[in-house]
Amino acid sequence: MKRPIVLAPNPSIDAEWRVDRVRWEEKNSVLSEHRWAGGKGVNVARWLTYLGAKPRIILPLGAQCGHRLQAVTAPLGTQRIGHLRRALLQQFDRLWR
After folding, report:
1. Which of 21, 76, 84, 85 could cysteine-pair with 45, CB 3.0–4.6 Å?
2. Which of 64, 55, 62, 57 minimizes the C-alpha distance to 79?
């Protein structure tokens, strides 16, 4: 069976903070923090993995955020593609000239 390829052009790092209670308009003490990869494409790849497929996910990975995204999406089969953002911006510039 061929591996599905998921294109995730807008990945994110979702964060969740646990507090003992929410104090509106005041500082809250964070008890714990959890971060994971998110965004529609990443979530599709996660569900495909859950259902037994072995998807390859293609997403822009740049700077420090990109390194973290690559680490948290590694179980989903991420592929690092260099300069994807630059290539997309060049194509966008050509459309508007």
Report:
1. 76
2. 57
CA dist list (Å): 27 to 14, 19, 22, 30, 97: 21, 11, 9, 9, 49
Mean model confidence pLDDT for the chain: 79
Q: What is the CA radius of gyration of the chain?
A: 17
Under a CB-based contact definition with an 8 Å cutoff, are residues 13 and 38 in contact? yes
Structure tokens at 54: 């072995």
Residue 34 sits at the vertex; the CA angle it makes with 10 and 32, to the nearest 5 degrees, is 150
Question: Region 64-82: what's the mean pLDDT?
Answer: 70
**Residue 88 CB partners (closer than 8 Å, separation 6+):** 9, 60
